[in-house]
Write a structure and sequence with these properties.
It is a single chain. It is built from 4 helices and 7 strands, in the order βααβββαβαββ. With 140 residues, the protein is of the alpha+beta class. A 7-stranded mixed sheet has the order 1-2-3-4-5-7-6, with helices on both faces. The two termini are 28 Å apart.
Length: 140
């Protein structure tokens, strides 16, 4: 398993992962977004046996970093890759305040984020299509 900064040559594969993981999700990123984020934000990929299995994207805001997307392909789940990407991120973004939004129904993700020290800040009414979101944060 290798975690490294995503590059332009990874964009099509990252977009493919986005479409598989967030299939039929109106908030899924479009291809041009990846070109922007690979240049401007904190976008890292995780590879297993030379294949990109997932990624994590943090947006740099004025006073904090916002976890925008964390995606792991189905075939690579339950290998601890999401945790590895979070470990890596928390080390890279040491001393930074962090925030994220997550679907209220995504108990697995909420539990993972809480394990890393994120706290529920508030419920975001109708944040997602037909569903509330949860704003979570970590001050450091």
């Amino acid at each position: 398993m290798i975690i490294s900064k995503a590059s332009r040559s990874d964009i099509k594969k990252l977009f493919e992962i986005e479409n598989k993981v967030f299939e039929n999700d109106c908030m899924a990123m479009k291809l041009p977004s990846f070109y922007y984020h690979v240049k401007k934000n904190f976008l890292y990929k995780v590879e297993v046996d030379g294949k990109i299995a997932g990624y994590i994207l943090w947006l740099n805001r004025k006073s904090f970093y916002r976890l925008y997307s964390l995606a792991i392909l189905q075939d690579y789940r339950k290998l601890g890759l999401a945790s590895k990407l979070l470990d890596f991120s928390l080390e890279k973004l040491r001393d930074k305040n962090l925030q994220l939004e997550v679907r209220e129904s995504n108990e697995k993700a909420i539990s993972l984020y809480e394990k890393y020290g994120f706290k529920k800040v508030k419920t975001l009414k109708d944040y997602y299509e037909n569903e509330n979101g949860v704003l979570m944060g970590m001050e450091r």
